[in-house]
Amino acid sequence: MNLPVSERGEIILSTGFYEAAFQSYCLQPGTPDPSSRDAYLQAPLAGPRADILETALRNSIQKPWLDQKNIQLLLWCVVSGSNFDQLAPSVKNTARQLLTPKQIFALKGGWMSVARNVVQYLPDGSGAGSYRQIQNLFELGQQSYEAYERVAVLREPSVIRHPEYKRDQWYRHADGYFVRYFPQDYRIVHVQVFVPGDLLDDTGMVNGNYLLFDPVRQMAVPANSNAQRLGIGAPVTDILRTVIQIHRQKEADKRQQKTPKPEPPKPVVMK
Length: 271
Prior knowledge:
Elements: E1 5-6, E2 11-12, E3 16-26, E4 31-32, E5 40-44, H1 50-62, H2 68-80, H3 89-98, H4 101-107, H5 112-117, H6 129-139, H7 145-152, E6 153-154, E7 171-172, E8 178-185, E9 188-195, E10 212-213, E11 218-222, E12 230-235, E13 243-244, H8 249-258
């Protein structure tokens, strides 16, 4: 966690082996809690309202003092299609610190289409029953976190479907470094990253760009079983890190294209 980060919370990698513990969150209610049986790999953050999930997780990095349980309840509200107005005041307050007003407005209605599409994001063999049970708990004003947890996180062994995937297996990221995940449970995941010595040039970059590891945009998903899918938020260790402003040429070019060019001044005719 001593590595510098970008202004968006991406970790700027150097050559070597790294490990850190992150707060993690259940994004797949109704599936077993991770255990030593489960091998995890990296997958893009996806699902209903993935943009809201990413915003909440990314902003949680900047606000590590927020209660992890309230963040989890907010995420269960998002993935289950529950109504924002049914949340407890403490969860609403957390949401206002993590989400934009537009995103909160979206959570207050228009969820029927999301609810109909939820099933396509469920692992094989699961149904929408757990999502509906969570909706019911919010509708009833249930205040006990453990009541939601009992529905969302099953305390039973996962079903191993692909034993060829091993827990300590490394997975190559598209940018050339390697990563693997070791969940302690659904609330904490240890992430290991290995950057080969020949990947970076003498400037510590790849083709003029920093090598970035973004823990938020990628979720940890089971490779061999039906265990929990995990969103990743703030590091467990809260330390002050150097923030580096990264010049993103593509984004700058887009902004420049959208900015209207001023018209040349009209010639003045002298009489």
